[in-house]
Amino acid sequence: MSNGLPRVLRAAPAGPGIDIAAAEDATRRLLQALGYDTSDEVLDQTPRRVAAAYAQMLTPVDFEFTTFPNEGYDELIVARSIQFHSLCMHHLLPFVGVAHIGYIPDGRIVGLSKLARVVEHFARDLQVQERLTEQIASCLQEKLTPNGVGVVMEAEHMCMTLRGVQKPGTTTVTSSLHGAIRNDPRTRQEFLALVRGDK
Ligand code: ZN
């Protein structure tokens, strides 16, 4: 299996086709429905900007998931506080936070920057945080087949802090644990302590 050459895998593409002109048109109509005069010079370019912003936030960036042979490391590898932002599927409002990712390698390891790329890839979609967490863990499980993988995400949802119950500073925490990080109590505890930043 290990021939010393990096194994290159492509992350699965996601996201439907985006019709920019239709998005601009719909934004203009939304502004009108909210009582704004879109012929006003100040709002003239807003539909174009909004459509472009959503298109960017909903278009995943493809990348090469390059892995390397593991030279015998069998302990946890943890990348903490990977910043991300995504869009809540229920309100089209952002949720913003950090992801902590750990894995125990088997035959392959991956560059740490690729872990951030995986987060970014799945975050550029209409999301719920639970699904995002699960997708990242499943992707790493599938592509690395490690002995264990854990993903913990903490995020502030604008739909909670700016509307509805309006509780600024509230964070939502989700986790997806697989393999030894889920099943071995010592490893699980070690992972969660590293995520919390305990010494
Ligand atoms: Zn929401």
How would you describe this structure to a colleague?
With 199 residues, the protein is α+β, with helices and mostly antiparallel strands. The chain folds into 2 domains: 20-57, no CATH class; 66-196, 2-Layer Sandwich (GTP Cyclohydrolase I, domain 2). It is 38% helix and 28% strand. It contains 7 helices and 8 strands, in the order βααββββαβαβαβαα. The strands form 2 sheets. The chain has a 5-stranded mixed β-sheet with strand order 6-3-4-7-8, sandwiched between helices. α1 packs across α2 and α3 packs across α4 (129-144). The longest helix has 16 residues, at 129-144. Residues 1-15 have low confidence and may be disordered. The site of zinc ion has 6 residues, from loops.
Which tags fit this structure?
alpha+beta; GTP Cyclohydrolase I, domain 2; 2 domains; 3-stranded antiparallel sheet; 7 helices; 28% strand
Taking the alpha carbons of the first and last residues, their distance comes to: 37 Å
Report helical residue fraction. Answer: 25-40%
In N-to-C order, the SSE pattern is: EHHEEEEHEHEHEHH
Read across the widest sheet, the strand sequence of neighbours is 6-3-4-7-8
Structure at a glance:
The chain has helices spanning 20-33, 46-57, 112-123, 129-144, 158-161, 179-183, 185-196; strands at residues 7-10, 64-69, 77-88, 94-104, 108-110, 126-127, 148-157, 172-178. With 199 residues, it is an alpha+beta fold.
Tell me the layout of helices and strands:
Elements: E1 7-10, H1 20-33, H2 46-57, E2 64-69, E3 77-88, E4 94-104, E5 108-110, H3 112-123, E6 126-127, H4 129-144, E7 148-157, H5 158-161, E8 172-178, H6 179-183, H7 185-196
Parallel strand pairs: 3-6
Antiparallel strand pairs: 1-2, 2-5, 3-4, 4-7, 7-8
Helix pairs in contact: 1-2, 3-4
The chain binds zinc ion.
